[in-house]
Amino acid sequence: MFGKLLHYEFRKCRSSKIMLLGITTVLELLFLIGILSKDENVLAISVVLLTITAIVGVIGLGIESVITLHRDMNTRQGYMLFMTPNSSLKILGAKVLENGLSMLLAAVFFGALGFLDVSLLFSYFGELDRLWQILSEMMEQFIPTLELNWGTAAVLILDMLCSWLAMVNMGYLADVLASSVLRGKKAGGFVAFLLFLALSFLMGWLQQTLVPETLPIIQRQIWFSVVALACAAGMYFLTAYVMERKLSV
Amino acid sequence: MLESKNITMRFGQKTAVDGVTTTLIPGHVYALLGPNGSGKTTWMKLATGLLKPASGEILWNGAPVGIESRREIAYMSTEPYFYTWMTVQDVGKYYDDFFEDFDPARYADLLSRMELTPELKTRNLSSGMMAKLKIAVTLARRAKVYLLDEPFNGIDLIARDEIARTIIETAGKEAILVLSSHLIEELEALADHAIFFREGKLILDCDLEEMRSDSGESMAERYRALYARKEVI
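ok -> structure tokens follow
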């Protein structure tokens, strides 16, 4: 039955994904027109907009997931979910998995598209080898010890995804608390938001405290991802517990 | 057997259900009665496990209602609750995916009796069609308990008779059927027990046949006596 829950979670968020894909397609066409016409203005605009779409898209998927949970808890549509014979662990688990997979797929999709576009750009305007050199020089401005290659790029993206997944899980917890134990309380929503901020700081503090600064940058990022995933798991179990015991829909 | 043991539910300062104790036996049809805000809907949601009580408990065959009882208790809310992207067919598929007791053939039959077609989008349904869809999908489950909140709301007189027949036919002799409605006369023809609520409290729980023979009152007359009296005071 978990597979069914997962299927319907994907279905609930389908419209926004179609919209994201539609916007990306239009911008990609703009990019291709820029390449074929060798119009630098069109190229620059399409590259900037594609980059923004990729970042906002992945972040937006996480935010949409929290909004979907909020809708499930606070509108009549929630009966469809909560009257089924599924535990809160399963219901929330399907949401977490749907969101994690969606963000991962979106990151892979935009990463592959970005690589293809940049390759195309260089095949038209320059050499592909220059790509890594330019990106490496850019990254060295921020992290001098970083040597950019496929491995490091993957680790950096993984860390960002894990951290964002943990933030989304904190959003779930804050929202479930606002919709259950804090419901009807004065400034309940504000208290839940403060809790979300406190948990975010706590995760940052844990990452800085538990992961030694002496580790090489890549190993540090991997350990940051591990701590973020552990935080996400902790939030997940705590949220499911509160849902099971306290949530009325 | 569905047992409500001293169940209480509060929303902030308001007590919606206040210490309700009653036992519902399979094979009976219960009319849940009372004015708006008397606690009928809240009690049904508690029995489904959608609401968590402040105190007390509801037991289904001896175990607290929750994940397991949802396999056997079918609830129909008075408000529309289907996802707006669903068609009538999607609604049936959803129930079939999650409820083992759902009978797709029966759903198809009920849809045809209610004059609903599978490709209709739920967001385009009129209130009457939506009410029929809720009834069709709920009754297509071979549940052991049916909790139907205002099943006749938004339905015209002719369709109401058909729905009343369908409800009784579906419930059979082994299920518990609980109906809430403000259409007292319609309910009286269906129910054999009545549970009266006022301000969250259960004020009367009676066998209708006994009531008729003991006091000579119909359910509607008892309703008027119980609630009109308070308004006069």
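DSSP finds eight helices and ten strands in chain B.
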